[in-house]
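Lecture 7 notes: from sequence to structure.
We start with the chain below.
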Amino acid sequence: MEAVAAAGRWLGQGWPLSRGAGLRGRGPAPGAAASRRLSGARAAPAGAREPVVERIIRVDQAGEFGANRIYAGQVAVLGRSSVGPLIRQMWNQEKDHLKKFNELMIAYRVRPTVLLPLWNVAGFLLGAGSALLGKKGAMACTVAVEESISDHYNRQIRTLVEEDPEKYKELLQIIKQFRDDEREHHDIGLEHDAEAAPAYSVLKTAIQLGCKAAIFLSERI
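Predicted structure tokens for the same chain:
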């Protein structure tokens, strides 16, 4: 029961986000201080070389890498359109996420997934392909991907809380902050007519199936 209550506290913090947060003016991320400590520490942090932590960091780094490639594809097509600046703003947050997980890969001594070359191409093609459907198609892709990622982060939060919330406090803070960012991107997509995209339900389902497959493979390979 204590684990369930603790998970509820971690999962509930920061949701829903206020409209003054994140891209709309949120202050420094709670994980920023943890980030500096992790990147500057000589010794491996708590949890280093543990299978659950290695799996989490490996898949999250791959996911943020893929998200960056999706936004790169969208910017390649829609970068000069009216929605270009908004896509770039979300992309900039994903760049910060990827930078952090790259640092965590080193700090926790985790090898990357061997599938990064595949996600490099697939992510860009998904981003560019959805953008070719127009603004609504790009936003539908954002909603589908960010919903999948935020749900994935919630599962990781539950796992770490069940293991030892105090031991993994810094990692939990980082994952929670990034989860909140992904939720905000999801909401932005909805606000910009994602659901009006052609065949929205089919497109969303197909993208989320791809996300689930990518998560499954990146955790293991």
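Points to note: Residues 14-21, 27-42 have pLDDT under 50 and may be disordered. The two ends are 34 Å apart (CA to CA).
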